Structures are given as C-alpha cells and as structure tokens.
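Lecture notes, unit on protein representations.

Consider one protein chain, 264 amino acids long.
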Amino acid sequence: MTEVFRLKQGKAPLLVSFPHSGEALPDSLRPRLTDEALTLDDTDHLLPELYDFVEALGGSTIEACYSRYVIDMNRPPDDASLYPGQNTTGIMPVIDFFGRSIYRPGAEPAADERADRIEAYWKPYHEALAAELERLRALHGAVLLWDAHSIRNTLPYLFAGTLPDLNIGTSAGASAGARIEAAVELAAARSEAYSVVNNGRFKGGYITRHYGKPLRGIHAVQLEMSKTIYLGRSQRPPFDDNRASALRVTLRDMLGAALEALIV
C-alpha cells in the first residue's frame, strides 16, 4: 500500500504543504474512474520537485501521496463550501475542474465512502501537518505555513477569463500577519515576469484558513500558480526547464521574504 503522506522535517520555521501533488489511486478505485479522470489533470503536477530548494532553506515539507480524487486534503471534513455561490469541488470529488463526472455511470461513491476516506487518508495527513506546525512553533515561537498549489489558467467551470500567474491567498488577511503578506506580494511583484493578485479568486483553502492563526504564531499563505509558468502551453508534465528554473528564483524570493518578515 502507498504511504498516505511524506514528511521531511527541517529546522527552520517553515513548513511547505503539497496537498494536491499526489497521483496514487487505490486499486479498487481505478476501474471506477472515467478515462479523462485517469489522466489526473487536476493534480498540482511536480510541485515538490519545483520547490526542491526548500530543503536548502532548512524548511519542512509534507506532501500527499494519493490523488485529490481519492480525498481532497484542502477541504473541510464537513465539506462546507470554501467559496459559497461559486462552482467548486468537494472533499470527495465527483466532478473535475471542467465540471465533468470523474466516475463511470453506476460507479459513483456511496454516502459512507466519504467517512471511510477521511479516516484513512485525510486525518493522517492533517494530524502530521498539525504536529509539525506545533513542533516548529515550539522551536521558534512563530512558523510560516506555505500551502503550494497550481492549476490550469483557464477553467470556465471555476472562474471567468484567464487566471493571473501568481495568486496569493491569506483569507483576506486573516491567516497571516500584514508584514508577511506585504513581503510576499512585494517579492512576487519584483520579478516583473508574472502577473500577481492578492486574495483574488483564490483566497486560501481549508489548510490556510484552518491553521493560519497569526496571534498564535502560525502564519499561513497559499500560493495558487498558473501551470503555464512552469509547464508551458500543455500545462502537463514534464517541466519546461527554462520556465521552471526562472520560477524557482521568484518562489525562493517570496519564501525568503516571508521568513525574513516572520522573524523581524
């Protein structure tokens, strides 16, 4: 059986979370999915590899091993909508980002499957994430949680038009201190290579909103990126090496600026 998550512990006050980079599927689920779903297009492709510099910063990382089609680590366990009134997908998705069913006819999940998947996949990830945040907060007094994501830049089912390249989310300022939010936005804008928005269409998912408690010393920032800026036109693997190399510079600057603001 595939492990549910991979945790690499560092010593700096930084934890980078990759809740949607996993691609594993249980053997029992694979035959139930449509051919389109089996391409796992909604995966945040190759993000742990893109953020390979985090270890050099001394940061910790946690990444989900299973696909978000099994369970979505960035949704609340009660499946309440993070964006009321807007199209979205749930904790146990039944549609993809194009609004298409991910299950073959008659193979849709039964109601009791959600509780089972939460217990088997969602809870272990969040227990490990919470424990690592507390470990780092105990060491440093404050910690930065960086929730890393990527998405196709045009998805009419989810949003109108074309998404900006770098979408910073702090739950409208509630999940991170103002100094940290400003430092991240300034570092992103300094690159001049990417369009940037702060708390636009994506303001942060469950992880950002639930764990970000600035008054307790836990500052959470979500970064949702357009896949074009590191994968190219196809928005599918492999890396566009030139794009990925350039983006790493900006990402490192953003994380570095946030950490500097954290300890001031």
